[in-house]
Amino acid sequence: MAALLETKDVTIQFGGHTAVDHVTVDIAEKQLTSIIGPNGAGKTTFFNLLSGQLSPTSGEIYFRGQNITKLSPTKRSRLGIGRSFQITNVFPNLTVLENVRLAVQSKRKVRYQMMAHFLHYKEFKEEAYHLLEKVLLIGKADTVAANLAHGEKRKLEIAMLLALDSEVLLLDEPTAGMALEEVPAIIEVIEQIKKQHEQTIVLIEHKMDMIMDLSDDVLVLFHGELIAQGSPQSIIANDIVQSAYLGGMYNEQLS
Ligand SMILES: Nc1ncnc2c1ncn2[C@@H]1O[C@H](COP(=O)(O)OP(=O)(O)OP(=O)(O)O)[C@@H](O)[C@H]1O
């Protein structure tokens, strides 16, 4: 399987603390790769390195063989690496629908072309409605983004990410903060994207069942180090992962 994203010996230190420690991985094209690890293992930091929010202290990151280590998040996003929007990218005073419409519009690169904007406005709006239906947020289309509950904000972020139609989707805990009964629908959204075999998905998720069912490949981080990479079955059967991580995680979830 061809690697789409690669890290070579990627390390980042904050002061004296090494949050990601010489991580070398290949992330295969059009597969779903999950990153797991206990709290503080370096998952989000690793994601930030992939998306360009952080620069490594040492090591390199490649996308389709191109060294992107020094590229900004915006440039990486233009290349096709989309990260679920941070809440700062959502316009809090605009409605949910308007936020998604703007994301659709930015994908079509007509932000500054008033005429094109005018001609396609209805089309953008329809696509935005469609995406909101997909992530089960249609009932909140006219709600101002600032008034959404936490789980609803995550759905909005996913809708905005989908609007960009990126080649790589980086999803940082897409179901965090959602009511338990909403989780299957979001998993379904991710499953549907996966079934289309058009995008590469990388996700951090604490819900183990979901990861094991959905993932083609699982990366396990522990104290910033990559301690295992493989199929869900091989990860479950891996003794090092079992003792270093899985036991602890299940205990965490039960507590
Ligand atoms: N900007 C920062 N400055 C200093 N330390 C940081 C910074 N960002 C992360 N860290 C530290 O790096 C380590 C890894 O953090 P990170 O958030 O990546 O872990 P995580 O695996 O995503 O954890 P969680 O599951 O709790 O979200 C932690 O010890 C954290 O305190």
Automatic annotation (TrEMBL):
Q: Does the keyword Nucleotide-binding apply?
A: yes
On whether Nucleotide-binding is a keyword of this UniProt record, the answer is yes
Q: Which InterPro entries match?
A: AAA+_ATPase, ABC_AA/LPS_Transport, ABC_transporter-like_ATP-bd, ABC_transporter-like_CS, P-loop_NTPase
One GO molecular-function entry: ATP hydrolysis activity
Mind listing the UniProt keywords for this protein, alphabetically?
Answer: ATP-binding, Nucleotide-binding, Transport
* ABC transporter domain residues: 5-248
A Pfam match: ABC_tran
One GO CC term on file: plasma membrane
Q: This chain belongs to which protein, by name?
A: ABC transporter ATP-binding protein
